[in-house]
Amino acid sequence: MVCSIVQVQQRFIREGCPNCETFLGLQNHPDQVQECTSQVFEGLITLADPTKSWVARWQRLDGYVPGVYAVKVVGQLPEETVQNIEDAGGRYIPRDGTVHDDDA
């Protein structure tokens, strides 16, 4: 729910998130995968080169790895996880449409 990359649950468990692993710690933690990912999303974007894509900038995906991303993800992270992101110097922007461009 942080970067909106689309992967099967087993891949999150086996490899973690290629963008957010440092602060989510999904690899080998099925409970964390359950809390920090969602199977409910709208729309798909395939990014071959996020550094050059206007769509990546529009969706705040520039700087992430190439892959398939959801346009909108249903769900919210646990407050403890949001705090971990902020403690690591990041900023959590919900991907469920509750934050608008002028808020972010």
Descriptive tags:
two-stranded antiparallel sheet; 31% helix; 2 strands; globular; 13% strand; alpha+beta; 104 residues; single chain
Considering DSSP H and I runs of 4 or more, what fraction of the residues is helical? 25-40%
The general outline is: globular
Biggest sheet strand order reads 1-2
- Major sheet details: 2 strands, antiparallel
% residues in beta strands: 5-15%
- Give the low-pLDDT segments: none
Structural class designation: alpha+beta
Radius of gyration: 13 Å
Task: Compute the number of strand runs.
Answer: 2
Terminus-to-terminus distance: 16 Å
Tally of contiguous helical segments: 5
Taking all residues together, what is the mean pLDDT? 91
- Helix and strand run: HHHEHEH
Kindly describe this structure:
The chain is an alpha+beta fold. It is 31% helix and 13% strand. The protein has helices spanning 9-15, 21-24, 30-36, 54-58, 79-87; strands spanning 41-47, 67-73. It starts with 8 loop residues before the first helix and ends in a 17-residue tail after the last helix.
Q: SSE layout and pairings?
A:
Layout: H1 9-15, H2 21-24, H3 30-36, E1 41-47, H4 54-58, E2 67-73, H5 79-87
Antiparallel strand pairs: 1-2
